[in-house]
Amino acid sequence: MEIKPITLTVNGKKYTFMTGDGSIEGVIPNSEVLVKTLRERLNLTGAKDACEEGACGCCTVIMNGDPVTSCMILTVDCDGADITTIEGLENPKTGELDPLQQAFIDKYAFQCGYCTPGIIMTSRALLNKNPHPTREEIGEALSGNFCRCISHYHVFEAVEQVANEGR
């Protein structure tokens, strides 16, 4: 059995894990997905482990600038990656929410909140690459996120607010 170290940068902090096959205490199995590592090993529970098929977007994080469904990515394949979770969006010095998080509050762009972190992370990745997306571009970006509470029209308003303010 080969055990090897991997390094992830999560929310600006570097972590090193040992990975390998089998069930050795403290070693991440090669089959473990990123959402499990984030939730169970780093206690970052914002990304939700919902469908486990990459279909709902609840587990979305930003990896190397792109939104990814963390239930579909093996942790071992994230060696060297820069990952941002919903917990990493707030200003580390002031504790202020990201403007997008605040816009979601201002526009009531959530109901139960279960899918909200994934939708925010997808939207943040879009705004990072395209600060002024059209409604159609927002819709396309969010096409992989599913909200059972049907609050998407508020989501569009929140993303558009931040885009219009250039934040």
From TrEMBL:
Record domain 2Fe-2S ferredoxin-type: where: 4-89
Task: Give the keywords, sorted.
Answer: 2Fe-2S, Iron, Iron-sulfur, Metal-binding
- Name of a matching Pfam family: Fer2_2
**Which residue ranges does UniProt annotate as crossing the membrane?**
none
InterPro entries annotated for this entry?
2Fe-2S-bd (IPR002888), 2Fe-2S-bd_dom_sf (IPR036884), 2Fe-2S_ferredoxin-like_sf (IPR036010), 2Fe-2S_ferredoxin-type (IPR001041), Beta-grasp_dom_sf (IPR012675), Diverse_Oxidoreductases (IPR051452)
User: Does the UniProt entry include the keyword Cell inner membrane?
Assistant: no
Query: Would you tell me the protein name for this molecule?
Result: (2Fe-2S)-binding protein
Name its species: Ruminococcus turbiniformis
Q: What is the lineage of its organism?
A: Bacteria, Bacillati, Bacillota, Clostridia, Eubacteriales
